[in-house]
Design a protein that fits this description.
By secondary structure, the protein is an alpha/beta fold. Helices cover 43% and strands 20% of the residues.
Length: 874
């Protein structure tokens, strides 16, 4: 079949025996047709996946996109008109004013509903992600607007790959630039995307030989050293799939070549770590769960917290960019209401990704991230900052963000509620068990653990009871569990262990000696322990659970430990900056290492402003030569003096370096004269080179004449290509016109709304003016004098009042003809908000007699005092 025969409409296809493993969906808008033709022109005829193309087009004009693309690519190109089966190595064009739906390896069309350009790239990506999951490859090319952003998030959530054209090289960078960085797997120039797609469709990297398997394990250790995250315990299929994406992005063909690339470009460690991690989340994700937490779980936890000095502790493990933790904080704030200040609320939000934690700490999110949050919640807990929303300080103050690896770090104690949703699905069974043991240690008796709906693991029956099956909510019950070891050594469950009551001896063999030798040996042991407690060197003895068995006052002072601390976990009492190093050293000592220097950092001196430098050493306890120690001796020493001496020596060396640099400067000035002589010689050499260059230019000119002849011969071919480019440009203009038409429709609708609002306002003002005129006419028609007073001023009066009292010129008399002082006349008293009931004459002692009285009237603008004068009939 000829290339042209493959272009055209497609009808219902036959069912496929096996649907393709991958699906490539391409979204573009303004400027995208030229990029599309270039991309598809480089695709091989045996490409291993179908390609769906969504290009914003004007539905009022006939599209020739299929013909344009078909003339540039070896793949058959078809316009989708009915439900068809998707075939690999085939391009499908979505027609204008329609949206696709992909189900069971088939694609069907629906009429587009909405005012946005069609086909909708968001709808295309969402449908592909639901149908193909991890096999979806979403590509976003040149275009304006943000269509495709929401769909890319769903592709990422499903485990698919998101590729965007480099915004710096795109003709219209709006669409690729609108995709948040945490959703993007690969950023590439348009010319590199075809090769990327071929690599991604070819399949994930999988070691085929034992040496490759060892190389992969070694490389994951390098990633662990760089990122602090042990990916060796993550599911192998997930790691290999994401590793393949980075190989494709870096144009490396194998693991060895990729490792060389990473070693030459250390920044790639960060790119690979980000690819391994899942950072897709949203506010109040899974509304049913948060409704259940709000209505059932949190009220119960708050009631329990009132019996524990109002302490409430929650843990969001794997919080990504913080949306889940802030959602919890908003629920707690609303549940406590005015009691929030009386509670000590701490929401620990942890993740292994340092960049995600840094983003979460800022607490600033684009408006699109809050599209699913109810407006009342936004008004209460967010502040609008331009096009973004910032979490209010009351919510931010409750959350504590930190980098934390469930496979390596110690957990948080006394937690009431722990959320770990869709994290364990990426762990091996061994790492899942350790994580569940961590949660069992952290949670209070009766606390809750919430797992994701996608989790297939079941919490340990010894420690958890299923509370809500549909929402995967478990309640903590059972014996206290000890912290599992930081490094996973076996998969057997930890049995609950109770800590012995009473004082423990310094070493296990001393306890045995006390039993054998009786009271004399016990006295000797007690004397030795008193001696250790008085030593100026810090001494601590811990057991295999990191619990302190013996500690002297020097150790408390040097390490900032307050209180007795016996049987407390040493790791959680250490300063934050020392935890990871000391924890690693303790583990090494438990494995029988004779001495390990683990900590040399600055700690604030107790009671002073000077900083001390502390050195901590760990020694295994028990019998010499044992591979596993039952206890560890920790020795803390103040080495501040040595450090200060070292700093003094470094200062002396710095002074010596300064003097050396001065001498070097003098040497340079002496050598500069010699350099000038060398430059003169170079100028002579340059002159000779210029003469040779002039001769070469004459030769080049001759070649250019020959090239000009060849250019004339290719001119006809370029004119033919110009016709095709003009047709492509026409399609792009159609897409741009459609977007402009949509914008004009929005502007016209807003203009009509503004005009209607202006007409209503003018009508209301006219009605108010007429009302005031009618009110004035009614007052003037009344025969009795009336005046209205507000805030000590006359705001209205009728004609009768003005005829009587304005003519009186302030002369007011009582009924006996006695002049009333100006401060006590009815108007003055009404201005002073006094109640008036009196008879007066205005203008003279023989003037008509009036009964003057006041009445108060409430209006929307405040109270008004009405002063009325009723004639007294003689």
């Amino acid at each position: 079949m000829r290339q042209d025969d493959a272009v055209g409409a497609v009808s219902v296809g036959e069912p496929m025996d096996e649907r393709p493993e991958h699906l490539v969906v391409v979204g573009a808008s303004a400027g995208g047709i030229d990029v599309l033709t270039s991309l598809l022109g480089q695709m091989p005829a045996d490409f291993g996946a179908p390609i769906l193309v969504g290009q914003h087009l004007d539905p009022r004009r006939e599209s020739h996109l299929d013909a344009i693309l078909g003339g540039r690519t070896p793949l058959p190109v078809s316009v989708v008109t009915e439900r068809i089966a998707l075939e690999q190595a085939h391009v499908y064009v979505i027609p204008p004013n329609t949206d696709p739906e992909i189900v069971d390896g088939h694609i069907a069309l629906h009429e587009h509903a909405g005012r946005r350009p069609a086909p909708s790239i968001d709808t295309l990506f969402r449908s592909a992600a639901r149908a193909y999951g991890e096999g979806t490859i979403a590509v976003i090319l040149s275009g304006t607007g943000s269509d495709g952003t929401a769909g890319a998030a769903e592709v990422k959530t499903a485990g698919g790959t998101v590729v965007i054209q480099n915004p710096d090289t795109a003709a219209f960078p709006g669409m690729p630039r609108a995709i948040p960085p945490n959703l993007v797997d690969i950023v590439a120039d348009a010319s590199a995307i075809p090769a990327l797609l071929q690599e991604l469709v070819a399949g994930s990297y999988a070691p085929s030989r034992p040496d490759e398997e060892r190389l992969l394990r070694s490389f994951l250790e390098q990633v662990k050293d760089s990122s602090g995250i042990d990916f060796a315990s993550y599911k192998r299929a997930t790691i290999l799939r994401r590793l393949q994406r980075r190989m494709a992005a870096t144009k490396t063909t194998g693991l060895r070549e990729y490792i060389r690339h990473v070693q030459a470009n250390p920044d790639e460690y960060g790119q690979l770590t980000a690819a391994f991690l899942i950072k897709v989340t949203e506010f109040f994700r899974d509304a049913d769960l948060f409704n259940h937490l709000r209505d059932r779980i949190l009220p119960q936890l708050i009631d329990d917290a009132r019996d524990r000095h109002n302490e409430l502790r929650l843990w969001s493990a794997g919080c990504a960019t913080g949306e889940e933790a802030y959602s919890l904080a908003m629920l707690v704030a609303d549940a406590l209401g005015d009691d929030l200040e009386a509670f000590n609320v701490r929401i620990f939000a942890t993740d292994v990704d340092a960049e995600a934690i840094a983003f979460a700490r800022r607490g600033i999110y684009p408006a699109s991230e809050l599209s699913g949050v109810p407006q009342p919640l936004i008004d209460r807990h967010f502040t609008r900052v331009g096009e973004h929303y910032e979490v209010r300080k009351t919510i931010r103050a409750m959350t504590v963000f930190g980098q934390h690896d469930l496979g390596q770090r110690a957990p948080f104690p006394r937690v009431d509620l722990a959320l770990c949703r869709n994290v364990l699905i990426y762990f091996t069974t061994e790492l899942q068990r350790r994580a569940l043991q961590l949660f069992a240690f952290s949670l209070r008796d009766g606390g809750y653990l919430v797992l994701g709906k996608s989790e297939s693991t079941t919490p340990l029956n010894d420690y958890f009871i299923l509370e809500q099956p549909r929402l995967k909510i478990y309640r903590r019950e059972g014996e206290r569990v000890l912290i599992p070891p930081a490094r996973i050594r076996d998969t057997t469950p930890l049995l609950p262990t109770r800590a012995p009551v009473g004082r423990r001896t310094l070493w296990p063999d001393q306890a045995a000696g006390a039993t054998r030798d009786g009271a004399s040996q016990a006295a000797t042991t007690e004397k030795a322990e008193r001696l250790l407690l008085r030593l100026p060197v810090g001494i601590i003895v811990i057991d295999r659970h990191y619990d302190i068995q013996t500690i002297n006052s020097a150790a408390r002072r040097l390490l900032g430990i307050h209180g007795p601390a016996i049987n407390d976990d040493l790791v959680h009492l250490l300063p934050q900056q020392a935890v990871s190093e000391v924890r690693a050293a303790l583990d090494g000592a438990f494995h029988g290492e004779s001495q390990t220097v683990v900590f040399d950092a600055n700690l604030p001196e107790a009671g002073g402003t000077e900083l001390r430098t502390i050195e901590v050493r760990c020694h295994p306890g028990g019998e010499t030569g044992s591979s596993e120690a039952e206890s560890v001796l920790v020795i803390a020493t103040d080495v501040s003096g040595a450090v200060r001496e070292r700093h003094a020596l470094e200062a002396m060396l710095a002074d010596e370096r300064t003097e050396k640099q001065r001498l070097l400067a003098q040497s340079r000035s002496l050598s500069s004269a010699n350099g000038e002589l060398v430059e003169a010689n170079q100028e002579l050499t340059t002159t000779n080179a210029e003469l040779r260059s002039a001769n070469e230019e004459l030769l080049v000119a001759n070649e250019e004449v020959q090239a000009a002849t060849e250019e004339v011969e290719t001119l006809n071919e370029e004119l033919q290509a110009t016709n095709e480019e003009l047709e492509t440009l026409n399609e792009e203009l159609q897409a741009t016109v459609e977007e402009l038409n949509t914008t004009n429709d929005d502007l016209e609708a807003r203009s009509v709304e503004l005009q209607e609002s202006a007409d209503r306002l003018a009508a209301e003002q006219a009605a108010a003016s007429r009302g005031r005129e009618v009110l004035a006419a009614l007052l003037d028609a009344l025969p009795d004098p009336i005046a209205a007073v507000r805030e000590g001023k006359i705001v209205a009066s009728n004609r009768a009042y003005r005829d009587v009292f304005d003519a009186a010129d302030g002369d007011v008399f009582d009924e006996r003809g006695k002049a009333i002082p100006s401060k006590r006349d009815p108007l003055s008293r009404a201005r002073a908000n006094e109640t008036v009931r009196m008879r007066v004459r205005a203008g003279g002692r023989d003037a008509p007699l009036f009964d003057a009285q006041t009445a108060s009237v409430e209006t929307t603008d405040g109270p008004i005092t009405i002063l009325s004068f009723r004639p007294v009939r003689q």
